[in-house]
Amino acid sequence: MKRTFIQNPSYLSVLRSTLATLVLACIAFIGAQAQGKSTSLNKVVARVDNYYILRSELEEYMIQAQSQAQGQQAPTMCQALERLIVNKMLLAKAEIDSVIVEDKQIESQVAARMDYMAKRFGSEKNIIEAYGKSIEALKYELREPIKQEMIAEKMQSKITEAIKVTPNEVKKFFNSIPKDSLPYIPAEVEIGQIVRYAKVTKAQNDELRARLLDYKARVEKGEDFTSLASAYSEDLGSAQRGGDLGFAKRGDMLPEFEGASLKLKPNELSEPIETEYGLHLIQLLETRGAEYHARHILLRPDYNRMDMSAPKKVLDSLYNLIKTDTLKFEKVAKTWSEDKSTADAGGLLKDQQSGSSRLPLDASMDYGLFMMLDTMKVGTISAPMNYRTDDGKTAMRIIYYKSKVEPHTASLKDDFEKLSNIVLANKKTEAVDKWFKKAIEDVFIKVDPEFQGCKMMGINLQDN
Which parts pass through the membrane (predicted)? Predict the structure, then answer.
């Protein structure tokens, strides 16, 4: 299957977005149920081995895909069904090949999605009111689609993990594009940041410690740790298991958490331990070689009551040093930025999909950041400003407008990284195509007569 550069994204990229869209569709579907919307719940439009695709799933996927099209052509009903069937095929083959995802990874993702929903709605209370269901019920309904998403992604990675790209392949690909058909690349920018998180006030820290010490005393008097964790822990992922984190290998957890856990004897309780996530009351259950099994109660600080004086003092000082050329931004970011995802790269923000530091200067960028860059010149830094991280933390940051690439016609010299990513995506697409044509022989697929005119990668669904 031939793919064209830029205009048509690779099937693999589409598949990756499909997996995320499926979970968003699930959230939307839960909302539709809560609001009493009519859906064809029992209509099965396709079956892939033991996995079923409902019309409601297809319709919700179409709605989500259309809302995320961002000016590009949304998939047709047949294309949407194709993407859902490939997703189910990945799951079916993963089951055959014994590809699994650990429960703690699934719970971590469930917690992340619930945190996202809490930010979107303002609080857990608002979520409950909006959906008419408890947090536990919503987590239960999200767990299976998230598990399927993660297994499908792991299976997809297994299919494509050995694929590499050489410079000659990139050059050959570029030369194959007619010169009058070279795509127009929109403006792109490189942006750096130095982030300092707001600190928990002493009053709030003391309040959280007192609550944890109270829970500790209650457990020592005979109260059930599991019940307390279920009722009070703000770690949404582990709370429904009574705070149980399962077995962890050394190095899996934050150093402060792991250090405190390994100092305990089985069933012993820690003092309140502070990490970047909040304060923990830890109970060690057992050790097994290089692994340990612990549970905890986590209390998070109220990010609206944080102390901004410390990060402002640090960033004001760093701003003046960088402004006077006493220190270079990249070195300061590596040493002083508390955002681990960007600090090692000298503060540079990177595209999560491609890993490129060149970000499109368009509507996909955070609106506040987009407007800020509009007032800055390349090579300058911003004064320290308040900032709310993606996971809801209160912080301050300095922005560095490192470079800007003006809109231009693609060239091998200026766009080698982008071209390389396209070639890699196309090679992975070919691998998925090849895998599909072989795997379809091992998987039972049946579609509703309404869709038997659809094709999957050139194959009539009714022919399987």
Answer: none
Rounded to whole angstroms, the Cα distance separating 349 from 358 reads 8
**pLDDT tens profile 350-363:** 987 677 888 988 87
pLDDT band for 7, please (50, 70, 90 cuts).
Answer: very low
Which residues contact residue 414 at a Cβ distance below 8 angstroms, ignoring those fewer than 6 apart? 405, 408
**Residues spanned by the domain of 69:** 44-164+425-451
The total number of structural domains in the chain stands at 3
Domain end position, chosen among 260, 283, 299:
299
Whether residue 114 is contained in a domain is answered as yes
Contact 357, 347 (CB under 8 A): no
Task: Taking residues 452-456, report their average pLDDT.
Answer: 75
* Closest of 459, 453, 451, 455 to residue 434, by C-alpha: 459
| The residue to which tokens 């793919």 are assigned | 3
Give Cα separations from 358 to 14, 33, 355 (angstroms): 21, 41, 9
- Asked whether residue 349 is domain-assigned, the answer is yes
Cα–Cα distance, 279 to 440 (Å, whole number)? 50
Asked if the structure places residue 18 within a domain, the reply is no
| pLDDT at residue 32 is higher than 60 | no
Q: pLDDT tens across 363-420, in order?
A: 778 888 888 999 999 999 999 998 888 766 789 999 999 999 999 999 998 889 888 9
Choosing from 272, 299, 326, the residue where a domain stops is 299
Let me know: does 48 contact 85? Beta carbons within 8 Å.
yes
Mean pLDDT throughout 26-43?
53
Query: Does some domain include residue 181?
Result: no
Given this model, what pLDDT does residue 23 score? 54
Percent of the chain past pLDDT 90, that is, above it, reads: 33
Is 29 in contact with 60 (CB distance < 8 Å)?
yes
For residues 310 and 196, membership in a common domain is answered with yes
- 48 and 194 in a single domain? The answer is no
Q: Is residue 330 located within the same domain as residue 441? A: no
